Amino acid sequence: MTDSESPPKFLIWSTMWWGYRYAFTNFGLLWRCAGVPFIVYFALFVAGSFVIIRDIDGPQNSFFNLEIMTSMSGVIGAMMSTYLAVAWHRAILLGETNPGFFRFVGPEIRYGLVAIALVLAPTFIEFLVAVLAVVTGTLGSGNTAYVILIGALTFLVFILSIFVFAILPGIAIGDRKMEVRRTLRCLKGNRWRIFVFVILSACVAVIIYLAGNEFSSFLRSYLWFVHDLLPVYPFTGQEWVIFAVTESFSSLIEVGLLMLATAGFTGGTSISYAGIANIRMLRDSDYQPPEQLMRRMTQLR
Length: 301
Hints:
By secondary structure, this protein is an all-alpha fold. It has one domain (12-300). 78% of the residues lie in helices and 0% in strands. It has helices at 12-25, 27-55, 62-94, 106-136, 144-166, 169-173, 180-186, 191-226, 237-283, 291-300. It is globular. The two termini are 20 Å apart. Mean pLDDT is 76; it is low at 60-64.
């Protein structure tokens, strides 16, 4: 196929729906991919709640404990999401159904570093422009050119990051030939569809996660109010039991929806990656996806 010919049309809504439907209807596979990190993260959530509530009106190191638990929660949460994303990509695109015990090695590290770089890229650009402004002395925070330059560079980096996110599954499955420049050229006619798909799918994932956060917070506050369980230390034995049940259930909802949101977004980008690989094969004779992906693509159609 030449560049002038019409490529296969990328389907935005059906691709996004497929990702979330696959996550909700294949919970057994999802548990095999993320069960161990889920349990660790869930336990950390509950333990953090106990540390925070114990130190209210208690020891003077409560802020230190809170900071430690918050930092650990963020790091473990990022590792869990990265591990789940890689395992879920490989389950969908390569047919791996037994990822094994929780690991964080080559693919997970590369995937996580690239994902973090993409998220932080706009901030990094703003930092570089600010440094340039200080060094040269030609731009100021109130200067129109300064604002336009930051806005333009951030927008360009944001667009490029979206497309890199679309081919990020290649890192998880070891598809080293799916480079950005040639892939973007082959996606002519579908670029805006893929851009819209990634944005919408990410928005749905954020909504699911925030819904879990809000519901768990509401449930926690409601149960505290019903049982007159105000966060005042020390608790009685019965209050500790009520608190433990409340925190465990609310944390289960919050962490569970985080897992489903990650799997839904990852599943959508996985199936879209299969479509991108198919388009790339049709328009680039030099591109050949991994053999496992080739076999899997015939099953996913």
